Amino acid sequence: MSGDNKIRIGVMSCTNIVRKLSRAINLAPNATIAAIASITTSIQETKSFAASNGFPPTVKIHSSYESLLEDPDVDAVYVPIPTSLHLEWVIRAAWNGKHVLLDKPVALNVSDFDLIVAACESNGVQFMDGTQWMHNPRTTKINELITDSESFGHIKSVHSCFSFAASETFLKNDIRVKPGLDGLGALGDAGWYTIQAVLLANNFKLPKTVTALSGPVLNDAGIVLSCGALLSWEEGVTATIYCSFLANLTMEITAIGTKGTLRVHDFVIPFQETEASFTTSTGTCVNDHKVMTELPQEACMVIEFARLVGEIKNKGTKPDGFWLSISRKTQLLVDAVKESIDNNLEPVFLSGR
Amino acid sequence: MSGDNKIRIGVMSCTNIVRKLSRAINLAPNATIAAIASITTSIQETKSFAASNGFPPTVKIHSSYESLLEDPDVDAVYVPIPTSLHLEWVIRAAWNGKHVLLDKPVALNVSDFDLIVAACESNGVQFMDGTQWMHNPRTTKINELITDSESFGHIKSVHSCFSFAASETFLKNDIRVKPGLDGLGALGDAGWYTIQAVLLANNFKLPKTVTALSGPVLNDAGIVLSCGALLSWEEGVTATIYCSFLANLTMEITAIGTKGTLRVHDFVIPFQETEASFTTSTGTCVNDHKVMTELPQEACMVIEFARLVGEIKNKGTKPDGFWLSISRKTQLLVDAVKESIDNNLEPVFLSGR
Questions:
Q1: Are β-strands B7-12 and B31-37 bridged in parallel, bridged antiparallel, or unpaired?
Q2: Whether B116 and B146 share a structural domain
Q3: Which of A15, A31, A232, B284 is the most exposed place for a label (fewest CB within 10 A)?
Q4: Smallest Cβ distance to A283: which of B156, B228, B249?
């Protein structure tokens, strides 16, 4: 793809996740970093960040998000700012005609997200959340296998967990433990992944009920540091999730069908960047699968995002609503777990939501 | 060990599990099959069963359980009869001075089990339940690793499941789906293992509460075919279990500590008889472990049972209460899950039980 046809992405902030995503954009053949805006660093510091992360020399440096969003040489923005700021800045981006790649959780709650959706739809901009593992080629393979009724049958039970042992500094200072910033804590962060995993295993069908499990751990400000939940569909199909900032790194999916079982041990971030494995089994017959990944999963995500944006920009098509619908379902379930925690672990019925 | 010193075991019934245990007794150097009693087969059929399963030619054939229990040449009995018959026959065995290896679930409920315990204690007989995987050398190794606070830290979350896809015939006719026989269904059978797994991971400490998860599947007679439960300890330590007759064979333990994670994929019956594997990880560093098992786990169980019986028989020591205490805790938790299912999924508080 010639340089002119690449989707020009503007990134917001100079955080670590921007380092990772910038590398991914550089690796993606259909995208380029066109601009950066940082409001917490000086122009000089931002320039230095851009240089040390391999941004093209032509990159524009903005000192405000407004200025980035008004830049006519930017097609799309990557928005990794705290969740409490998503509503304002994604709506502004949409009304400026910028396509949006937004970090999870997508909003503080689903009604905020619906305002984001409305803004994106009104302006015909593409939306995608930044859940990288969903774009790993392994995930495509997993999806094929668990929707194969011959080998997997139909789903009966899923368990997914994502935990990591956060440092004392993280538990004191990270935006993910601050009510004014990422108020959903471990649930909006680690829990987001586990909820998308159980949705994937259920072909993205919403459960009937969501019930938080007893024993959630909250910090003094009431932010979830660790919790679990049960999701229930019809006919005894169930899923449990567990997410935590307080336990050793664990990233599991165990999905059990009537005929097959799937196990993944590193679903969020594969232990190796260039290959990703999982196992399936039927009875005592176990198969190990390995999927080679030429590019890291975050680059695959950028490529897919830029492809969708390219369809709109170059062919005048409408935005693809698939990823947006998954973001909304995930946010709905995150909200439901939170509601159940806040409501003495009562089940939350999702009908009509 | 000379033939004279071997613990002489009498087995009850001619079922498939007796085939498996007879092989185990034959493999155990400190035990021998001294007698068999079957009330559903003719003497000739029982003789033929004995011959085709490698019983010693000297084995005595009894046509009633009473007669077996009165046999002075029997030290101990293996009792794999339906759960509803445990109370009567284990109490009779104990009062006849026979040590007891009893299949799980040990009773229909813990108050029945307490009568069994009282009978065993009154008569100084050794009790052990027939949960084979607890005697696999791998389980010893697992126990060492998860109680190592240096590498594992302390437990935060455990998930264990045991499911298998029962045939239509099983779901119609097996004793495990009949109210009058094994009325605890999948919970007393598959669930028993998962509960012992989460107890093991919690150093056999009882949880504070047990809550059945929504979505249990019952048959027309009200027997559990599939269910899940949450077990909660102090400070947010939780475990979830899932057991089912309706899903593909899956036998998982995922135990997450503050510093380490343990994963076992075949904890109930290892995929291979002569070796058993598991993995541990800390952060992204994963270690595969393999434990060689010279004898199958059921033979290890018989050896341990016969060793304990031998201590009493030959040295006059008192019965060892360790295995009995674990059986009681497991039964207590099985009961609690059932109580929660019967009581609209309300939590069951275990304090004082």
A1: parallel
A2: no
A3: B284
A4: B249
Q: What is the pLDDT of residue A3?
A: 53
Boundary of a domain, candidates B76, B101, B131 = B131
A230 touching B, CB under 8 A? yes
Q: Is A260–B248 a contact, with Cβ atoms under 8 angstroms apart?
A: yes
B331-343 residue pLDDT tens: 999 999 999 999 9
| Distance set, CA B222 to CA A236, B177, B242, B347 (Å) | 14, 9, 18, 20
Q: Which of B249, B258, B347 sits opposite A246 (nearest CB)?
A: B258
Q: Is residue B244 part of a domain?
A: yes
pLDDT for residue B3: 53
Give the domain range for residue A42.
Answer: 3-132+298-323
Distance from C-alpha of B147 to C-alpha of B144, rounded to nearest angstrom:
5
User: What's the rounded Cα separation, in Å, for the pair A66 and A64?
Assistant: 5
User: What's the domain count of chain B?
Assistant: 2
Phi, psi of A129 (to 5 degrees): -90, 160
* Average pLDDT estimate for A133-149: 96
Q: Please indicate, yes or no, if residue B319 is contained in any of the structural domains.
A: no
- Residues of A numbered 238-267 whose beta carbons fall under 8 angstroms of chain B's beta carbons: which are they? 238, 240, 242, 244, 246-250, 252, 254, 256-261, 263, 265-266
Mark whether A24 and A111 lie in a shared domain: yes
**CATH number, domain at B66?**
3.40.50.720
3-state secondary structure of A257: strand
- In this prediction the ipTM stands at 0.90
pLDDT digits over B229-286, tens only? 999 999 889 999 999 999 999 999 999 999 999 999 999 999 998 999 999 999 999 9
How would you classify residue B279: left for phi > 0, otherwise alpha for psi between -120 and 50, otherwise beta? beta
CA distance B45 to A187: 61
Query: ∠ CA B97-B102-B105 to the nearest 5 degrees?
Result: 140
CA distance B275 to chain A (A): 15
| Burial label, B155 (beta-carbon count in 10 A; 0-12, 13-18, 19+) | buried
- CB distance B256–A161 less than 8 Å? yes
| Nearest CB partner across the interface for A271, out of B157, B246, B286 | B286
Residues from chain B that touch A242, judged by Cβ atoms under 8 A, are 157, 159, 238, 240, 256
Q: Are residues A34 and A157 in the same domain?
A: no
Q: Taking 60 as the threshold, does the pLDDT of residue B2 lie above it? A: no
Report whether pLDDT(A347) > 70. Answer: yes
Kindly report, residue by residue over A7-31, the tens digit of the pLDDT: 999 999 999 999 999 999 999 999 9
* Whether residues B235 and B335 fall in one domain: yes
| Per-residue CA distances from B274 to A217, B136, B297, B307 (Å) | 42, 10, 9, 22
pLDDT of residue A175: 85
SS3 B88: helix
Mean pLDDT of all residues in B17-23: 95
Answer yes or no: do B248 and A254 touch at CB < 8 A: no
Please check whether residue B285 lies inside any domain of the structure.
yes
> Would residue B309 count as lying in a domain?
no
Compare CB distances from A159 to B159, B216, B236 and report the shortest one's residue.
B159
Could you tell me the two tokens for A31? 């995208």
Neighbours of A62 (CB within 10 A): 21
pLDDT value at position B183? Answer: 83
Contacts of A247 in chain B (CB under 8 A): 156-157, 256-258, 261
Q: CATH number of the domain at A339, please.
A: 3.30.360.10
Instruction: Let me know whether A311 and A238 are in one domain.
Output: no
Cis peptide before A72 (omega within 30 of 0): no
Q: Are residues A48 and A175 in the same domain?
A: no
Instruction: Tell me, yes or no, whether A166 and A256 share the same domain.
Output: yes
pLDDT in tens, B106-158: 999 999 999 999 999 999 999 999 999 999 999 999 999 999 999 999 999 99
